[in-house]
C-alpha cells in the first residue's frame, strides 16, 4: 500500500491541507470558472454598500458565516425601500 506524501499534492486548501481526488477536481473546475475582474468589481460594490472590506478574502469564504450576507441584504433592502417611499 502506498500513501501520497503531502509535498506531492497539487493543491492545498485554506488550512494548508493537501487536496486530493474529487475535491481536487472540483477545486480545479471552480478555479477555471473564476472571473477575477468581475469578482473584484462585486467586492468593491459590497464594500461601498456595507463598508466591510473583503478584498483579501476568498469570495465564497466571505459569505460563509452569513453575517456579511445579512448586512448586504439589509442595505439593499433599505435602499430599495427608501427608493419606493420617494416615488410617492
> What integer value in Å does the Rg equal?
19 Å
Oligomer: single chain
What is the distance, rounded to the nearest whole angstrom, between the alpha carbons of the first and last residues? 74 Å
β-strand number: 2
**Which word captures the global form?**
elongated
Give the number of domains: 2
What string, H for helix and E for strand, traces the elements in order?
EEHHHH
- Strand fraction band? under 5%
Structure classification: mainly alpha
- Largest sheet, strands/sense/barrel: 2 strands, antiparallel
Helix content percent band: 55-70%
Describe the structure in brief.
The protein is mainly α and 88 residues long. The chain is built from four helices and two strands. It is elongated and about 55 Å long.
Could you characterize the architecture of this molecule?
The chain is mostly helical and 88 residues long. It has two domains: 1-33, no CATH class; 36-88, no CATH class. Helices cover 59% and strands 5% of the residues. It contains four helices and two strands. The protein has helices spanning 21-33, 36-50, 59-62, 67-86, and strands spanning 11-12, 18-19. It has a two-stranded antiparallel sheet with strand order 1-2. A hairpin with a 5-residue loop joins strand 1 and strand 2. The radius of gyration is 19 Å and the shape is elongated. The mean pLDDT is 79.
Q: What are the SSEs and their pairings?
A:
Elements: E1 11-12, E2 18-19, H1 21-33, H2 36-50, H3 59-62, H4 67-86
Antiparallel strand pairs: 1-2
Overview features:
88 residues, two-stranded antiparallel sheet, 4 helices, 59% helix, 5% strand, elongated
Amino acid at each position: 500500500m502506498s500513501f501520497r506524501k503531502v509535498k506531492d499534492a497539487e493543491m492545498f486548501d485554506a488550512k494548508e491541507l493537501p487536496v486530493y481526488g474529487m475535491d481536487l477536481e472540483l477545486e480545479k473546475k471552480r478555479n477555471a470558472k473564476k472571473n477575477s475582474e468581475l469578482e473584484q468589481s462585486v467586492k468593491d460594490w459590497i464594500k461601498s454598500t456595507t463598508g466591510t472590506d473583503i478584498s483579501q478574502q476568498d469570495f465564497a469564504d466571505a459569505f460563509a458565516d452569513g453575517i456579511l450576507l445579512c448586512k448586504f441584504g439589509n442595505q439593499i433592502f433599505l435602499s430599495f425601500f427608501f427608493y419606493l417611499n420617494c416615488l410617492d
